[in-house]
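Record format v2
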Amino acid sequence: MIKSTMQDYALNITQLFQHGRRVHSDSEIITYHGPDAELQTSTFAEVGDRADQLAAVLAELGVGAGDRVGTFMWNNQRHLEAYLAIPCMGAVLHTLNIRLFPDQLAYVVNHAEDKVIIVDASLAPLLARVRDQFTTVEHIIVCDGGDADARDGLGLGATQDYEELLAAQQPGYDYPEVDERAAAAMCYTSGTTGDPKGVAYSHRSTWLHSLAAQTMEGLQIGEADRVLLIVPQFHANAWGIPYAAWTTGCDLVMPQQFLQAGPVADLVAKTQPTISGAVPTVLSDILHNASDADLSSLRYVVCGGSAVPRSLMEGYQETFGVEVIQAWGMTETSPLGAVARVPKNNAGDDPYAWRVRTGRVFPGVELRICDEAGNELPWDDEAQGEIEVRGPWITGSYYLDDSPEKFHDGWLRTGDVGTVDPRGFVQITDRAKDVIKSGGEWISSVDLENSLMGHPAVLEAAVVGVPDDRWDERPLACVVLAEGQSATAADLTSYLEDKVAKWWLPERWTFIDEVPKTSVGKFSKKDLRASYANGDLTVEEV
Ligand code: ADP
C-alpha cells in the first residue's frame, strides 16, 4: 500500500457547527409561537453564541465527556442549541420521545443514564409523571417555566431556568477535541415490540450523514433553502435535517407544538419555506383539513417513516402543486437509506411509477436482500427478502443491548421485506411482523392500504393479518371514511378488484373513527390486532 498524503482529519460535529455559524452567520432559525404570536427569529451567529453559553452551563453543572443530556422538547430554537452544544462539548445528546408511554420514558432515561434533562414547560406534566422513577438525573432545566415559584408547581422537583442559566455565561466556549468515533447523540427506537432499543450516533457518522443528506441524490438542501421542520427532533434526529441545514446555511422553521393543519398553513404563509419533511399521517391531515392553503413556496416535501400512498402524492401535486418525495430509513440508519427520485433513462414512464417506490439506495449505504436462510437474493425487482444494510451511518449494535438476531455478518437486519430492481430501487412490501401469511403465501398490507387510500371516500386504511381457520391468516381492512363520505365494504371490495390479486381481497372489514398511531405517528397495527383479538371492533364479513 502507498500511504496517501491526506491529513488524518477528525470528522466531528464541532467542525460543522463552527462552519455554519461563521460562514452562514446571517441564516436564520425561526420559531413559531402560534398564529397570534410574533415569530421568534435568530441568526446562526446568535444561536451559535447561545450554544456556547449552553455548553458552559452544562459544564458548570458537572456534565463531562460522554455524559448524557436528555431533551424533552418540541422543535424549536433551544432544541437546536442543545443539538449543537451537547455533542460539541463532548457530551451525548439524548433526544427523548415526548410521546412514549410513561414506563418506556422512564426506561430510556434510566437506560441511557441521563444526567441532565432540558424540558419545555408545556411538556413538563408528561415528564413529571415519571420524575420519581429517574435514577441518574441530577438536574432538570426548564424552558419558559417562569420564576422559581411557578416552576415548583410543575411537579419536577428542583429545577433551573434555561434563560437564567444562559444569561450567567459568555459566548466563546472552548470546545475540546472529540474523537470522531465518540458518541454524539442517542435515539431510542419507539419500541413497537418490547423495550425501546438505543442507537448511539458518532461524530463521524453524523458528519458523513449531514453532508450526504444535502446532495442532489439526497434531500437537496442548500443555502437558498428554508426547511419547515415538521418531523420531530426526537424522531431519528429529525431525519438528520438540522445538521445538514446548519452546515449549508439553510434556514430552519420550527413549528413547536403547532402541528395541526391550520397552524402549519399559517406558518407556511408567514415564512415561505422551500422544503419540509413529515410522516404520511401529518401530510394527510394537512391535505384534508387545509386544502385551500397556499403551500406553493415549497419545492418539495420529503415523506417517509411508513409507505407513502400514491393518492397522497397526487393529492399534494393537484391541490398544492407540491411534490412529495418518498424516502426510507430507520432510527438505526441515521436515518437516510433510500430516496425515490425519478431516474434518467426512464423510458418516458409515468414518473409516479418511480416516485411511489420506497426509494433508491443512497450513496454511502450498502443494501442487500436475503431469504429466510440468509442467502443473498438478486436485484431483479421480483425476488423478495429481508432488507439488510451496512455503511458508515448504520448502527452495528444497540446501546447496552445485545440483540444478535438483529445483525447478520455485520449487516443490520431491518425487519423490512421487499424487492430491489437492477438500478437499486427498493420496494418494501411490508414489515416482516406485519406481513399477512395466507395459505403459505404473503399478502402485502402496504399494497392493500395504498390501494384503499386511493378511494376518494377513504381517509385512512390499515390492513392487519388476523387468525383464520382455513388460511392461517387473512387480512382485516380497518377503514376510516373521510368526513361526509360513505362507502360500504362491498363498494371498497369492488374498487380493489382490479388493483390487487383476487385472493388478497379482505373478507373482514371494520369502519373505525381513527387508526391508532404510534409515538411517531405511524399506524399502530399492534393496537389494531389487539383490539380485534379483544373483540373491540365491529367486523363485517363480505
Ligand atoms: P419505529 O421502528 O419505532 O417505527 P423508525 O422510524 O426507526 O421507528 O422506523 C423505521 C421503519 O419505518 C422502517 O424499518 C420501515 O418499516 C418503516 N419505513 C420508513 N420509511 C418507509 C417507507 N418509505 N416505506 C415503508 N416503510 C417505511
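Residues 189-190, 192, 236, 304-308, 326, 328-331, 358, 414-416, 428, 431, 520, 522 surround adenosine-5'-diphosphate (CB under 6 Å).
The radius of gyration is 23 Å.
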